[in-house]
Amino acid sequence: MSELLEGFAVHRTGSTDPGHPLLVLVHGLGGAAAAWSLLTPHLAADHRLVLLDLPGHGHAPDLPAQDMTPAALGARLRRFAAAQQAARQGPVHLVGHSLGGWICLEAAAGEAGPVAGVTAFTPAGLWTSPRRRPPLLPTGQQFARLAGRLPGDLVTSRIGRTLALGATSTAPRALPAEVVRSAVSSIAAAAGYVAADAGIATAAFTRAAEVPVPVTVVVGRRDRVLPPAFCRRECAPPQTRWIEWAHCGHVPAWDRPADSARVVREHVAATA
């Protein structure tokens, strides 16, 4: 972590050339900056990358529950983007996954400001009614904490990877062991998980008509976390470029990292 701004733990990597585009990447519920580890190598050479830990995730301290809604986090992200712009960092391109995608859309809504565009991978919030978890089904965090108690490297074994990440990836057995360990430990340790999860469950993204910038949304047709019924094109901003990948789950940056990087590049180029 290089600094703490607006409640986010900020990690800067990639290019240091001020002429290269600035990307701010926002992970999903229970994640951390390391969730982008398969994507960033495809972008680091010619993009300035700012990876955020959401409050109560990764290295960022927790916040009160009322500050953990997607709208409240989006307002913080918009202020963070404005600070980057004020520091003459150039246009700010937001890239988000799941909850992070919803937060990016909230940050982009309103009068033209610091956000140049949004690329959202399987964003939450694009639903007509929130998806509520059955009361007896464990949360992702509860499941991760159980997985974290498995002996030795069982969590990174073939069956362990399938049990731990089978709901989020179409090919969990192909994921590097470090990605599996990092994902499970991040979710298990996230102090802000419960509050953020509650914020997701009681709301929806309702400001689509207020987003003035280009938007790209990528959804996976094999997404078991946010299936098509809960990721609706009509709930996105009207100018959205909508992409569907048949062989992709809830985390495109894991299942198709090179293609995900290509989409980000195309979006930034089109925005410019």
Please tag this protein with its features.
272 residues; alpha/beta; Rossmann fold; 8-stranded mixed beta sheet; 8 strands; globular
Short description:
With 272 residues, the chain is of the alpha/beta class.
Task: Describe the fold and architecture.
With 272 residues, this protein is of the alpha/beta class. It has a single domain (3-131, 192-271), classed as 3-Layer(aba) Sandwich (Rossmann fold). 31% of the residues lie in helices and 17% in strands. It has helices spanning 70-86, 99-108, 140-148, 158-165, 177-189, 193-201, 252-255, 257-271; strands at residues 3-5, 8-14, 22-26, 48-53, 92-97, 115-121, 215-220, 241-245. It has an eight-stranded mixed sheet, with helices on both faces. The chain is globular. The relative contact order is 0.17.
Helix and strand arrangement:
Layout: E1 3-5, E2 8-14, E3 22-26, E4 48-53, H1 70-86, E5 92-97, H2 99-108, E6 115-121, H3 140-148, H4 158-165, H5 177-189, H6 193-201, E7 215-220, E8 241-245, H7 252-255, H8 257-271
Parallel strand pairs: 3-4, 3-5, 5-6, 6-7, 7-8
Antiparallel strand pairs: 1-2, 2-4
Helix pairs in contact: 1-2, 3-5
